[in-house]
């Protein structure tokens, strides 16, 4: 089977998706990672419905103002796969073959084209307890499981006792 006849499928389970200012934000509920897809990467991800082949994805790149070049689709698929936004599939060659620099070399594109190439930026989002800057003594006593080691509000030198402790507020 020719690699271009594969039908990539975007992962949809356990994801929250929001379009903001022309970009697509995808939050993975399982890994607590947030991914920002630029329009080119979002186009390939949304078209990866398990029915369209890689060849068909290439033919639709002009929707994002990109040249119809297979390297652009493979670059997007490689980046989406790396962050777990695709169902498992076979990717050709080494991942470095689809780096931004390599794709620009193949396309012979101008520097301005780099803004249009598929980009996926990811960050790990902290859990609510990890994002808190402090807890009150009452919150510390109510935590399940008890205590997280966070500093007590208005008492920065004191912290909730380590997990498993029966009393919070110790040093």
Task: Give an account of the 3D structure.
- By secondary structure, the protein is α+β, with helices and mostly antiparallel strands.
- 27% of the residues lie in helices and 17% in strands.
- It contains six helices and six strands; from the N terminus they run E-E-E-H-H-H-H-E-H-H-E-E.
- The strands form two sheets. The chain has a four-stranded antiparallel sheet with strand order 1-2-3-4. Strands 5-6 form a two-stranded antiparallel ribbon.
- The longest helix is centred in the middle third of the chain and has 13 residues, at 70-82.
- The protein is elongated and about 65 Å long.
- 23% of the residues are buried.
- Residues 110-115 and 167-171 have low confidence and may be disordered.
Question: Helix content range of the residues, please?
Answer: 25-40%
Regions with pLDDT < 50 over 5+ consecutive residues? 110-115, 167-171
Q: What is the helix/strand order? A: EEEHHHHEHHEE
Mean pLDDT: 74
Quaternary status: single chain
The biggest sheet, with number of strands, parallel, antiparallel or mixed sense and barrel status, is:
4 strands, antiparallel
**Which sequence of strands runs across the widest sheet?**
1-2-3-4
Share of residues in strands: 15-25%
- Rg for CA atoms: 22 Å
Give the end-to-end Cα distance, rounded to a whole number of Å: 64 Å
Question: Can you give keywords for this protein?
Answer:
27% helix, disordered C terminus, alpha+beta, 171 residues, 4-stranded antiparallel β-sheet
């Amino acid at each position: 089977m020719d690699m271009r006849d594969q039908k990539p499928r975007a992962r949809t389970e356990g994801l929250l998706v929001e379009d903001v200012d022309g970009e697509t934000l995808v939050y993975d509920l399982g890994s607590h990672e947030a991914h920002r897809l630029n329009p080119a990467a979002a186009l390939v991800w949304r078209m990866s419905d398990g029915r369209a082949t890689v060849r068909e994805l290439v033919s639709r790149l002009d929707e994002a103002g990109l040249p119809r070049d297979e390297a652009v689709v493979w670059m997007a698929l490689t980046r989406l796969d790396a962050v777990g936004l695709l169902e498992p599939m076979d990717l050709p060659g080494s991942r470095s073959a689809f780096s931004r620099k390599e794709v620009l070399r193949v396309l012979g594109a101008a520097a301005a084209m780099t803004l249009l190439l598929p980009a996926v930026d990811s960050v790990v989002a902290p859990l609510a307890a990890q994002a808190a800057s402090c807890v009150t003594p009452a919150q510390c006593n109510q935590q399940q499981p008890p205590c997280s080691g966070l500093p007590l509000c208005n008492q920065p030198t004191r912290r909730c006792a380590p997990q498993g402790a029966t009393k919070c507020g110790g040093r």
